[in-house]
UniProtKB/TrEMBL annotation:
It comes from Romboutsia weinsteinii. Keywords: Membrane, Transmembrane, Transmembrane helix. The keyword Membrane applies. NCBIfam families: intg_mem_TP0381. It comes from the Bacteria. This is TIGR02206 family membrane protein. The chain crosses the membrane at residues 20-38, 50-69, 81-99, 104-122, 134-153, 165-185, 220-238. The keyword Cell inner membrane does not apply. Pfam families: TMEM164.
Amino acid sequence: MKEFFDYNTNFGHRTTILEILIPIFITFTIIYCISRFRYKIKTNIKIDKLFRICMLVSLSIFYISNYILLWMQTGFNIHKLPLQLCSISALLCIILLLTNNKKIFNFVIFSGVLGGIGSILSPDVSCSWMYYRYYQFMGMHSLIAIVPMYYAIIYKYLPSKREAINVFIIIQTLAVIMGILNTIFNTDYLYVGFSGNIGPKGTIIECFGESTFYLINYEIFIMSVFFIWFILFKLIFYKNYVIKNK
């Protein structure tokens, strides 16, 4: 049992296609079910509350247990702070579930959905299904995508163009701050590197080149994904949840 919670034993394992596809399938199945049964959830306060509590408890356990186990086994230092975008998104999703705050939703509908799905498709950790780290990683990243989609479908939260631009500016500001931090302390938060490619091995970011080319390609990639998702989200949401309800 002790080995199951070990964060070091499975080092070097390359996550298999099946270990990636199963969480993706579960994530999209849950989002589909939320959409499919949205009217029942909307009209039943108890079901809505139960669903949010389940997501809150699960996400909190994944988030807190990760850092407790990480710090207990490898020590606490500047390299292991919850400053990656997905960690920030997880904390904000927890707050969103507690407060239903629309401003927080505006942020996590981008950082949570894109970061969560992107991390599952291209995980930056070498984790195996035989260890808790795999379930924690996949579970947390799945939930930070599911939570904002739940609020979009059930509560009809939808970011405006201005709100989307504000979120993009916030992410850019965070990137600059983390880039400075990474340069000073040799960390890899948000994978912003001013002196070279600090993208995790085995992910698409690793292919962005070095030095200036890395930053330019990274910026183009983030900007493209961000605004493509905004357009798709608006189109899908308007077609399925606005027109049908008129």
